[in-house]
Amino acid sequence: MSRPGPRQGEGALDGARLTLWAPDGLAEVRPGDDLAALVGDLLASDADRSGDRLAEGDVVVVTSKIVSKAEGRVVRAADREQAITDETVRVVAVRERPGGLPPLRIVENRLGLVMAAAGVDASNTPEGTVLLLPEDPDTSARALRAAWRARFGIDRLGVVVTDTAGRPWREGLTDIAVGAAGLAVVDDLRGGTDAHGRPLSVTVAAVADEIAAASELVRGKASGRAVAVARGVGRYVLAGHGPQGDGAGARSLVRGGPDDLFREGSAEAYARGLADGHDLPR
Amino acid sequence: MSRPGPRQGEGALDGARLTLWAPDGLAEVRPGDDLAALVGDLLASDADRSGDRLAEGDVVVVTSKIVSKAEGRVVRAADREQAITDETVRVVAVRERPGGLPPLRIVENRLGLVMAAAGVDASNTPEGTVLLLPEDPDTSARALRAAWRARFGIDRLGVVVTDTAGRPWREGLTDIAVGAAGLAVVDDLRGGTDAHGRPLSVTVAAVADEIAAASELVRGKASGRAVAVARGVGRYVLAGHGPQGDGAGARSLVRGGPDDLFREGSAEAYARGLADGHDLPR
């Protein structure tokens, strides 16, 4: 795999300064649209306006919403609960809600992501519709990266596809990376040392998620801006085309299986234990 | 409470552009140090070097590590497991680990935070010691804010105290806000509408956590930089002194009680159910 890292002229500041901006003016994305072209046009006109051209080491961040829209991942709103069911691989936890609302379902979806409503989205889409997550956001990220590398003549370019998710034990939502290309999605410092020379044995920073979270601060939910650029994380950005340049993708950030201590919600696990315990011979 | 928001001259770009930088050169922080003065000196000398003076609407981000060091929250390393036990209010989940390592404990600590090892930290501290989290990071944030408002003559100033934490279902760690002052810690859009005029009924962005995550990208674990400044989120920054200007703090980001669907790890909840089920009369 190509080594990520800053290049001459970029190194002194890379890592110590980060700038993100969110260009405005992307037209409504519709099924079948060439998303790479639309966003490329946005970036180009933004560059004309501001003088800030896409550069080596930049990361383009797009919401999964516009990827889904372009890919036609739209279903009728009346089918929202059915859409969630269809996207559900495994139910993790369910909470009843007042006021006639359907229960909140936290589930594992096709992408291995554990999210409320399987990631099905009813905001920022035309009335009467909901959006599913992209079929394969890593693949989408790779296609976007290839198109923009060619269009802008950039070798080292990262792409992150974001979605918004809640977290256990914390109020509020943050954006995370559900797709990525051209980026080391984690900063794996295992085997490295800290400033005191002690081993950083468990420090694996989820760089792609941090970039996603930072991008939400410039995009904002109410404004509907769907694209951001992050400049200053070039040390994580990969060069070259194909698998080596694309990297492992955001799928590598999904944790499951025996390492998942929260595979079931507490109430669900308790209930299952209760049933099994009742069946145990005395 | 003072209304957060951009002021004249700042509004056009606020929200669409975000810059973070991490000044270098903070001396090792020791128990009893005046942290506000040390970090203030760092910011002042960085401003002399770069011309970038702290300005209205800026947010200063500091790691909980340096707050803990200044507050003397240091214990001997041999007592790490005991320190974790002492900081534990409630055990959430435990995972055995190979190689003679003590089990990984995910627990709720005094601050209501659910974290591995109760937030006890063995990296970036002198050999033979571990660090506890600050006694009350919101209080620490408020004190820092008051000192810097006075020193730099700034009315609208935010402060975030960060710590690094893992997440269920995702690899890698991100930084979150464990203390905050002068900041709306969530961007509560409930009651607002999206670009289509549809109600944003569940969208509450955890702004303070997003700022914390973004700051990690410029601080970096291996470099040991403990301070960052975020410019461009002024719309979330509060004005004035005292409780109105300080805001609710990061404690308001802690979710617990009946809304916590993952109060126990799956294995723990299952085992408890199994025991209770075994005791049920037939």
Automatic annotation (TrEMBL), chains A, B:
Report the enzyme's class at the first EC level: ligase
Coenzyme F420:L-glutamate ligase-like domain: from which residue to which, for each copy?
A: 27-232
Q: Which InterPro entries match?
A: F420-0_g-glutamyl_ligase, F420-0_gamma-glut_ligase-dom
Q: What's the superkingdom here?
A: Bacteria
Q: Which GO terms describe its molecular function?
A: coenzyme F420-0:L-glutamate ligase activity; coenzyme F420-1:gamma-L-glutamate ligase activity
Q: Which Pfam families match?
A: F420_ligase (PF01996)
Name the Enzyme Commission number(s) assigned to this protein: 6.3.2.31, 6.3.2.34
Name the keywords, alphabetized.
GTP-binding, Ligase, Magnesium, Manganese, Metal-binding, Nucleotide-binding, Potassium
List the SUPFAM superfamilies. Answer: CofE-like
Entries under PANTHER family matching the protein: COENZYME F420:L-GLUTAMATE LIGASE, PTHR47917
User: What is the official name of this protein in its record?
Assistant: Coenzyme F420-0:L-glutamate ligase/coenzyme F420-1:gamma-L-glutamate ligase
The species this protein was found in: Isoptericola halotolerans
